[in-house]
Amino acid sequence: MEYIEGVTKRITKEKAIEALDSILNSRLLVTEPVSSTDWKKAKEYFNKYNDQQIDLTDCLSFAIMERLNLDTALTFDNDFRVHGFNVLKWKR
To answer: Fewer beta carbons under 10 A from the terminal one: N or C of the chain?
Structure first.
């Protein structure tokens, strides 16, 4: 979702809609439903990192990744590393 937000703000809403459709119809990418437990855990992380600029979207990603036993994130920032994940940096 954060990617789609970025496309909406930095490019155009039309391109964001196209990107979202591509993601939802992809056989390579999986969209994972969010559970109430994920939200609860995300809020705990959001509160835990109150001294840092880690946003709620990243905290929700942490919770989902932990539930799915994923340990590596492709990301633009260091928030996932702060939480303890391995990070593959996306070069701009």
So the answer is: C
